């Protein structure tokens, strides 16, 4: 019996790329029989201005009108996208700071999040804070489908690569990805390091676990030693495989009230060339 997502939360900002995120979220929803919730979450325009507290009430009012016009434009694009008669979606707006906290509160109630890679070149356009994705992925504990900020996105996840390591992060990501893995045409598991079993007799392993879920995976060991640049190698192997999706655990920790990603997670988040399903 196949598992399925039932509620998908997609992040909307002020860019055209939000439309691609919404389209992919609805494509997954169509496959899974899920609902889609679209939540617009951006920073107010006055936040980045120098001496913002000293701005007069007229200037603040004008900036708020600008933000409201951007939200209306995003809502119009959202409504236009729904005109195709596909899966329906609800609309909401985070209207309080901090932006990530408002979205995070909604993330707890979703089976899957659909987020966009941070684009440093379009920060003013998106109005999304730099650490938004990290804060949501790590803070919510919910699986997140993070989409690259540029390039064409796949219409479906036919070939899926799984980065596997015997850690809780990898295990959570694998479980979270089951609804997609069960519907993929090909699943390839990439591993580094030696696998040891510490039990005698019949033991559990990854291939058998996936087989029990109806997934005939191709397990491909990549070497006994995990290289320092494993993040770049993962992206390279995904390109070689023609993968539509990479599934991996997300490593991170809190430092000075910010979420800091581990090395591999950081590399993937900065350099992704395909959608990545992450779980912390």
Word description of this protein:
This protein has 280 residues and is an alpha/beta fold. It has 2 domains: 7-147, Rossmann fold (3-Layer(aba) Sandwich); 159-279, HUPs (Rossmann fold). The protein has helices at 17-32, 57-81, 99-107, 123-126, 132-140, 168-181, 206-212, 230-241, 263-271, and strands at residues 7-12, 35-40, 89-93, 112-116, 144-147, 159-164, 186-191, 218-221, 245-249, 252-255, 258-261, 276-279. Strand 1 (7-12), helix 1 (17-32) and strand 2 (35-40) form a beta-alpha-beta unit. Helix 1 (17-32) packs across helix 2, helix 3 runs parallel beside helix 5 (132-140) and helix 8 (230-241) packs across helix 9. Residues 255-261 have low confidence and may be disordered.
Give the ordered list of helices and strands.
EHEHEHEHHEEHEHEHEEEHE
CATH class of the largest domain: Alpha Beta
- Helices, by number, come to 9
Radius of gyration: 20 Å
Whole-number average pLDDT? Answer: 88
Shape: elongated
Q: Report low-confidence residues grouped into runs of 5 or more.
A: 255-261
Q: Tell me the strand percentage band.
A: 15-25%
Helix and strand topology:
Elements: E1 7-12, H1 17-32, E2 35-40, H2 57-81, E3 89-93, H3 99-107, E4 112-116, H4 123-126, H5 132-140, E5 144-147, E6 159-164, H6 168-181, E7 186-191, H7 206-212, E8 218-221, H8 230-241, E9 245-249, E10 252-255, E11 258-261, H9 263-271, E12 276-279
Parallel strand pairs: 1-2, 1-4, 2-3, 4-5, 6-7, 6-9, 7-8, 9-12
Antiparallel strand pairs: 5-12, 10-11
Helix pairs in contact: 1-2, 3-5, 8-9
